[in-house]
Specification:
By secondary structure, this protein is mainly beta. It is 11% helix and 52% strand. β1 and β2 (63-75) form a beta hairpin. The termini are far apart.
């Protein structure tokens, strides 16, 4: 009498399939708890952008503001955006750019209000007029009105002078600025 022939490929295949089923069942039963579950719909951003550049155009089709940064997240609730380490480039009346940086930023849904917070630094366009740098803790920018303003203390540095005051506003097109109160000036001679 002949022994039945065993096809070892079928036996090994069945064994592997059974092992895969057992492994899958075990992994399913030992998965992480649902505590890391889904965030509420309003807590999650609509989208996230990394290392981005956005150019917003005004009603006349010209550049209103350019925004660069390493991270932008748009809110699903109000469609505003929060930005990490934003750089806003705001053109003056000749198309030269003011640069405004901060640790954090926020942009309204329609882009008509920008908020910069923590270590805000603004610099006037390179090679145009008197080089100007201002610093403050927070700054709101309204591109349609060509206006940047804060109620916090601000420092404006130009060659030969430093102005410090409370409450500051600037016209980004004309480069005119003013303080509201407590203005102090200091002569700062150039170092040789």
């Amino acid at each position: 009498m002949r022994k039945p022939h065993v096809n070892w490929r079928v036996v090994i295949g069945c064994g592997l399939a059974l092992a895969a089923c057992i492994f899958g069942w075990s992994a399913w039963n030992h998965r992480a708890p649902e505590s890391l579950a889904v965030a509420a719909p309003g807590d999650r951003p609509d989208y996230v952008m990394h290392d981005f550049e956005l150019v917003a155009l005004g009603a006349d089709g010209t550049e209103a503001v350019t925004l660069r940064g390493p991270l932008l997240q748009r809110s699903a609730l109000d469609h505003s955006s929060t930005i990490t380490a934003p750089l806003f480039l705001i053109p003056d009346d000749k198309g030269n750019h003011w640069q405004m940086r901060a640790k954090t930023g926020w942009v309204s849904e329609k882009g008509d209000e920008l908020r910069l917070h923590d270590d805000v630094v603004g610099t006037s366009p390179d090679g145009i007029g008197t080089p100007t740098t201002f610093t403050t803790t927070w700054l709101n920018v309204y591109p349609k009105q060509d206006l940047a303003m804060t109620d916090a203390q601000a420092t404006i540095t130009q060659p030969g002078s430093i102005l410090i005051g409370t409450g500051f506003s600037a016209n980004t097109k004309t480069r005119n600025f003013s303080f509201k109160s407590q203005v102090h000036s200091r002569y700062a001679p150039k170092r040789r």
